[in-house]
Amino acid sequence: MPRLPTWITRRASVEMALAGCAGGVAMWGLPPAPAPLPAILGLALWLRLLEGTRSRRGAWLGFAFGLGHFVPGLAWLWTSLHVYGKIPSVVVVLMIAGLAAILAGYTALFGALLPRLVVRPVMLPVAAGALWVVTEWLRAHVLSGFPWNLIGYVWDGVDPVVQIADLGGVYLLSGLTLFLAGLVALLSRSEAWRRWERPVWVGVMGVVVMGAAWFYGQQRLRELAALAPAAGAAREMRVALVQGNIAQDLKWEPTRQKEWLHRYLDLTAALDRSVDLVVWPETAAAFFLQAAPRELESIVAVSRGLQAPILTGAPMANQNEHKEWLFFNSMVLIGARESGDFLHRYDKHHLVPFGEYIPFRALAPQSLRKLTHGAKDFSSGPGPALLEWGLGAFGPLICYEVIFPDEVRELARQGARWLINVTNDGWFGESAKPQHLAMARMRAVENRLPMIRVANSGISAVFDAAGRELGRIPSNEPGSLVVAVPQGVGESLWSRQGHRWIWAWSGLCLLLWGVARLAGFPPPSTDDRAILKS
């Protein structure tokens, strides 16, 4: 490619439109049809647009890229907000655009800072990779965080490359994606082709980095495959996934709650008795079990017949010291005890803003209600915590909690041997289901722990510690599936040292900034004021 034409670089409207299109192309590479190439090409075009800019212009280009990237990536919210939330369509469009604009603030920050880290074009791949990871990490943590569709998920399905996530999490895959996009941006410069050895060296750099990732991944896959027979059946857990496929608009109908419960009971009672654990999805029991002794006894009876506990999602309630009722989105393990007591309980701690609670409730109008069923906000549980039982501890994750890499890493650090994610993706429409599934799969690879995922309307699936699928129940089908799941080791660099990675990425950015300060910032290639006025 030649240098970008002057009719592009002299018109802000054209540049902004191209940046938005680049964001859309990059979004095209994410699940449900993950493909690294579209993401790399879209990012490379954006990096070219950022070339030679000042911070203000770079921020606007970053904001445009973010809008083009996040608006289509959040389209599934239409189902949650309009179809089930009954919010008027115009308001929903504004809400999606508003959330995309907030998330675009992180790409705007990237666009503003990148030119300050790149003194010479050769620094672009490293600077882009490091800075992007820092801004993604901020997106995952600031104001509760929203790490949906991090760019590293474009590698979902490329099994050898995905394995490097056990070193630096999905963030390392994001850094790799930006590094490769930076190389493509360098190759697209006309100056790079004036001497043949320059594109050759850029190509060699890309081949070496990708080759190293591929070689590491293949080695890890072989090692994990060799561990499986050595572990033996004694370390396996036979887990039954039960997917009820209850329609979201009927799930909470009071007159049909017993019907839905009996669907789960019937699917479970039909299972082979050689199971160790039965898992139902989030709020499979769509009522307070503490106030339904007969229904609870029905679950206990089925558990007793299988001689295996049943893990189910259910709303729970407790009174605090002020005699006020607090409500929780919970996961409870119900065993075959004569008393029917709950064996263990986990309360969801990372709640969905506006979906499960209203942020800053004291300042919000009392008429403002959360989107999920019930008039009262859910309360947050105490934090990531294991559920212990006879075959080993497992890390409980309810719905959205599985998308947070650092919180799942904490469960691995505490000694989990399996991860169990119960969810109800029926809220989100079909496009979000494979996206959410890809994030759950990545948590298995990062922490080298099997992931057992059960969803009300699918996709329910099990992955081993290498992210390989062991079985699934397709979307929108009721059914059950028994899978022998090996115990995970939970040992990876990410699980042990993942909290230190952000300091490494930030330190690299600071080093590049220091080099740029010593060398002096290069002047912009165009007059920013003229561009912003045009």
Distance between the termini: 25 Å
| % residues in beta strands | 5-15%
Average pLDDT works out at 87
Number of domains: 2
What is the count of DSSP helices, taking H or I runs of 4+ residues?
16
Please give the share of residues in helix.
Answer: 40-55%
- The H-and-E topology, N to C, reads as HHHHHHHHHHEHEHEEEEHEHEEEEHH
Beta strands, count: 11
| Approximate shape | globular
Radius of gyration, CA atoms, in whole angstroms: 25 Å
Structural class: alpha/beta
Low-confidence stretches: 523-534
| Strand numbers in spatial order across the main sheet | 5-4-3-2-1-11
Largest sheet: 6 strands, mixed
Q: How is this fold's topology laid out?
A:
Elements lengths: L5 H4 L2 H17 L7 H15 L4 H19 L3 H8 L4 H29 L6 H18 L17 H4 L2 H23 L9 H35 L4 E8 L13 H13 L7 E3 L13 H14 L3 E10 L5 E10 L7 E6 L46 E5 L6 H10 L3 E6 L8 H16 L3 E5 L4 E4 L5 E5 L5 E8 L6 H27 L8 H6 L1
Helix pairs in contact: 2-3, 2-4, 3-9, 4-6, 5-6, 6-7, 7-9, 7-15, 9-10, 9-14, 9-15, 11-12, 13-15
Question: Care to give the gist of this entry?
Answer:
With 534 residues, the protein is of the alpha/beta class. It is 48% helix and 13% strand.
